[in-house]
Amino acid sequence: MSQVMDTPGEKCPLCANKQRLVPLWFQENTETWIKCDICNVWCHASCLKLPSEECDRIDEYHCPNCTRTHGPSVYKVGIRKSKREHSKVNYADLENGLTGNPYKWKRVLDSKIFQKHKFRKIRGEQLTIDWVRWFGLEEPIIIENPDGLDMKMPHKDITVSEIAETVGYDTPVDVIDVSTQQEIPDWNMYKWATYFDGPKRDQVLNVISLEVSETPFGDSILRPRIVRELDWVENMWPNKKMVEYPKVQLYCLMSIKDSFTDFHIDFGGSSVFYHVIRGSKVFYFVPPTPSNLKKYSRWISSPEQSMTFFADLVKDCFEVKLVAGNTMIIPTGWIHAVYTPDDSIVIGGNFLHGFNIGIQLAIYDIEKRTNVPIKYRFPYFEKMSWYAGKHYNKILKEDPSSLSQWELKGIVELALFLLGFTGKLESNSESTMEERQLIKDNIPNEVSDPIRLTKRLSRRINRIINQGNMNFDEEESEDQKVNIKSCRRNHDDNSGTSRKDNSVSTKIKLRVKKRVLEDDHERSVKWAKTSSSVPRPPPYNYSIYSYDENDRESSTSPTPEEIAKVEQIIKEKIREFELENRKKSYKS
Questions:
Q1: In 325-480, which ranges are E strands?
Q2: 519: exposed, middle or buried (C-beta count within 10 Å: 0-12, 13-18, 19+)?
Q3: Helix axes 381-398, 357-369, angle to 10 degrees
Q4: Quick one: DSSP state of residue 558?
Q5: pTM above the 0.90 mark?
């Protein structure tokens, strides 16, 4: 059967040494090629003087040379069908990692069985900070109607040409060839709009990384209220108009039918909001369990990645379908692929937040260990972490009761992460001058004394944990037992009700050891897990030291029995909290 497609890497033997009058962008992205089914040589249909319509009618094409020995080309019989319907997946090519057929992804997806998701579907007005403090952000959330999200989006009939005019025709854009999952260089919005809104497309191309936050188009968009309230960059990064900052808050994604983005985790473990303006999308989600993250880390580092469908390596993969008007929040670390059944335009954006700090750090560690290029990492991740450390240090000092259990656990991980840097800055550290300078370059000017900050952050979060002041009883309001939309009741009304842990008499402090574990991080001392098995992030170990009222560290390292005792205390607190939550849910 003849194959008709675009192959910009091939050279047509009929015009290889001739200068053509066809524009370069037209040759590379719009022109029809046809392959001889005998000698497998690709040629321009125009060089063979074959109209595109004629190519569609050919079932088995023979080039002029092969016609002499094998006869003329064979034409289709009966009703003519489109080349998409006739195309077949070359499984031999798939096994060899070849990706010449852009429609193979649909065939692969149709051959798989995915689990039906059970993710929450809620109304926009329900998705508030109090809702997140109650339920956390551990699974994707679907909002079918934009009402109540307090956001502003483009009109539903907007075209790519309109977007190009507003963003600027000369704006560079990263275009992905779906067949190879690789970028095509030298595209701008004018060229992309001509392709997307044009009558013919000989390739399946996709744009998923056009950041528009500082354009007139971006100025007309307002992200959902919950995203604005959670976003670290929005709430912690100073003087965004005066200095560089992570420009990842607002993207326009433009995908044609049959586009596919292979399994990935958003950079830095950032969460994503995703609103479909036009068309539809299908997501395939894999939970970020420790086992799945290990498999993902091996998969993206494997030379056989292009030959392996990641969902085949894991136990659970959930399918979620979105249509125009739907919004979804993708939480930290979820491994996902995306298929586009219809031409679509989507507005989305990435954000770091305090409800999944541990997994954010775990993903950042995976990116470093697997040598992900800087271009594909969350910009200024370490600097953003310092701003977060400064922010939470102030809250722990002034109003620790305002923090949820998710944030308190995350602050422990953040303190460990930052202590890993300051340990290398101390005078007795064995780190090189280059390492020290790199760490200093990533510390913002607003953090004048990073060593002091990390010590205070560590001291305060451990004092909260040690004293049993995680305020699990006070964190949710009486009204939330009946209605999750209600606000938390006044702290004064609950004075004297805070639960103290009388079994704890020894104060504890967490410290990062100056060495990095060589063993797998799952064998290290772990922070107590929730029922969803939140993985311990990077392979930094920590020790537990006793300290007196003046914060003088003991010279004695903890024994295994002391470590086990502390772990047991923390696990008991978590179990008490879960039991209390179940009682509240029964009452409601």
A1: 327-330, 335-351
A2: exposed
A3: 160
A4: P
A5: no
